[in-house]
Amino acid sequence: MPCAGVFDLLQLQRLFSDRLKERVPLARYTTARVGGSADAFISVNSKQELKDIVGYLWSLGIPYLIIGGGSNMLISDAGVREVVIYNRARQVRFDEDNHTPKVEAESGAKIGLVARQAAARGLAGLEWAAGIPGTVGGAVVGNAGAHGRDMAESLFVAEILHQHKEGDNSQGNLHPMVEDWPVHRLEFGYRNSILKRQKGSMVVLSAEFPLMRSTPEQVRKKIQEFVSFRQRTQPPGASMGSMFKNPTEDSAGRLIEAAGLKGRRIGDAEISSKHANFFINHGGASAMDIKQLIDLACSEVYEKFEVKLELEIELVGEW
Predict the structure, then answer these.
(1) Is 312 noted as a catalytic residue in this protein?
(2) Catalytic choice (71, 191, 214, 272)
(3) For the segment 68-96, what is each residue's pLDDT rounded down to a tens digit?
(4) Most buried among 13, 59, 71, 151, using CB within 10 Å?
(5) What is the C-alpha separation between 130 and 289, in angstroms, rounded?
(6) Is 88 considered catalytic here?
């Protein structure tokens, strides 16, 4: 029978057989540990599987949501009507033979783990990413950054699946195409990219990063410095990372604190008393608890400072 008017569940069952799971709770797949269920849920274990399944869904006109590390997203308590693809494509391959060493990682690989694997080989360049909880794909889409560096500065090329139109007229048929996109084609901005702005039409399959030769001791020392700074300045616990983008020449955390909201709670959700741009789930929060804190922060900051806060995270599902 049709599922919420979005897709035919029986059609998906015939297509994907026992790979398709129904009514899968999504909270366990997110760093905030909140959110409802996915009507349809499929795991992929390689970039080829990711390419094939997205291609099938495109051909059927079925919307989808890709989840990797589950950071930087707030999934509603009502859940997700799109097909949720859980990206477990995590192969990582280092090439140390060339003059410039490099690493290629599939999009479901944890970017922090890739940075630590590089450190173990004495390869530098990704130390800034060691504390980031998301995946390579998510980091590319959102131009993740920390400690003065970001994806736009660190990436060499991304392997992108997109829909290519055959023919010169508007009636041309769309077909999946895989291309290596250099950094300029990704149109990176502050925590943004063309992939994020045109969500659903492009997918990161893998990414390649140039590295520099160093020693394991030196790279690990730099990583530890960054991790220690993160532990001193950011709260532990279940959160989505930074909630809002920093306004020009200011910081979202400072504005929220200046509005008197540091430590404010709704239910089991809290605007962190350590860093006001982090919203913490203390164990029993709902997605709506967090959403109400988001709305409160936006309204109070605008009322007091006439600054419109812009979300860095993505609101997912039915609100």
Answers:
(1) yes
(2) 191
(3) 999 999 999 999 999 999 999 999 999 99
(4) 151
(5) 30
(6) no
